[in-house]
Structure formats: structure tokens, C-alpha cells
Description:
The chain is mainly beta. The chain has 3 helices and 16 strands.
Amino acid sequence: MLLVLLGAPAAASTTGAAATKQPVAQRHRVDALVIAADVPERAALEDALWLRVGERPISDSLHARNPKDGELFAYVEVKAKDATTLVVRLVLSDARAYVRTIESPADLRARELAATVANLVAGIEEDDLPPDERDVVLPPVLEPAPAEPPPRPLAPQPLAPPRYELGIAAGADAALALGPPSPQGFAAAGAHARVDVRMRKGALVAVALRGLGNRRSGYGLTRIRLAIEGGYAFRRGAFELLTTAGLTVEPWVVTRGSKVPDVAERTPAHAALGGLVRIAPAWRRVGPRGRAFRLAPFVELAGSAIPARNGGVARLRVQDTSGTRELFRVGGLELALGLELGLWLPRR
């Protein structure tokens, strides 16, 4: 007998410890209430529910949306058993159902129904109310809402074709004097800059500024040429061919040190007028937003003359102890070769 009495408290203590280790049930909030469209006095029931279930959506089955993934909706059905007896069935969107039978006179029906539904919701959220039915057939309004399709990636908007393209280029030049009179061969070297405007269908206009120079026997020749050109820019993939023709005006001056000397029979400063034909095949690489880099060798054939009474080709020579020496020639037929780098900028 003593052993039994001593062991009794230990058994009770073990039971209490086991009870304290049981997991606490997690609450699951009912996110919305849906009332069947055929429930009598539905509007009165809805008003009574608003006072009892807190701030959560309440709607009828004709206007309610379907629950999304993770949402718990409750569907309220009411059937009359007789004049004073009603059967309330609360169906959850997880396929559990709760059934209650209530006795209520007609003037208190909405209030009694609302109180019953509110008590069921409270018990469900506290997770201390076992369901009366499981795996029930859901009404259509409780079927899960279809998953939203993933957003379609936005296709990049195609760029509108530019109204025209602005080309900026710079390069190096070497000019060769062709044909008579002498001196022939290398004439001058230098650099140029140009601005081209290409229309959408390929027509081209350009303005170019070129500076060339040469030095011989202590004398220097400086030539500054302005050209206005028109032509066509053909494109096929990365290949581009610019073909232009234009008019030129080219002031020039001969210097020795910082002064303009007297040479031969002609004043060593004047301007030549002429024309040119230019071809520039290019490799073109298109970048973001239609901007394009271009690399182009070019060849140019030009002719010019001095617009004076005794004009033509200016031959610049000096007389010294060894006789007359040809220094420079300005005018006549010239061939220019070079390489240029450029950039096309679309304008929309």
C-alpha cells in the first residue's frame, strides 16, 4: 500500500508534463464569408453578420470571387426543416463542413443565424471545433481561383526608322599630283573632318573641311579646302558605300618661317576652285538605339584651278645659285587617299 501511494504523485506528474509538451494548435483565419444566393432574408443576415465577424469581406455567391491559393473562404447554406427549424451548413474552401440545427421564430431568424455562423467561425479560427464532414464537394464559388499566368516578358519596342542620320567623321589624307605640269607625285598630306546627312532612302549631302601641308627647302605650303558634296550611301548588312561628288574652294599660302615670301612671278597666296568625285567603302557596326560606328578607306579624284585672268595651275618655284627649283603645285588633277573613322547618329 505504501508503494502505491508513493507512486501515485509520480504518475500524475508525468501526465502533466506530457500535457504541457503537446503542440499548440495554430489558428487559421477565415478570410471571407460567402452567403448562398438562395438564403431567405439574405440582406438582413449579411447586416447581422457584419456586427459579429469583424472586418472581413461578406458577399453573396453571385458576386463573390473564388479564393486564391492560401485563402480560406466559408460558404453559408441555410435550409428550412419546418416553420421554426433551420439547418445551417458552413462549408470551408478546404473541404471541411459544419452543420448546426437551430430553432428560431421568423422575427429573430437573421440574428440567430448570424450568431450561429459567428460561433462556428470563432471555433474554426481557434481550431477547437472538429468538422462534421470532410472532403465535401465544394460549391463552384469555393473552387480555387485559376492560377494567374506568369507575366509575359515585354518584347522590346522596335525602334522607329530615323527621319535622317547625322554622320560625323575625321580622317587622314595624302594627295598626289597627276599629269602635267610639274612637280608631280606627292603634293601634300594632312587631315579632314566632315559632316554627312543621310536621308532614309540613302540620299546624302555633306560638308567637309580639309587641311593639307607640305615643306620643301625651308618653304611651307598650307592648303585649306572646303567642299560641299552630294551623293548616295548604299548599305547591305555591315557594308556601306558612300559615293559623292561636289564643289570645292581651297585657299592656299606659301610661307618661309612666319612670313609670306616673294616667289617666282606669282603672289604665293590665292584660292583654287574645283570639283571632286569621292568613293568610300566602309565597315559599319550598329550599336544601341541605332548608333553606328564606321571605318572607311577612301579614294578621291579632284581637279581645281586658280580663278584669275592668267589662272590655271599655280607652280611655286624658287631661284637660287643652282638654278630654278620647283617647290609646290596647286591645282590641276589630284588623287587623294586616306582612312577615316566616323559615327552615324539617327535622328527620329
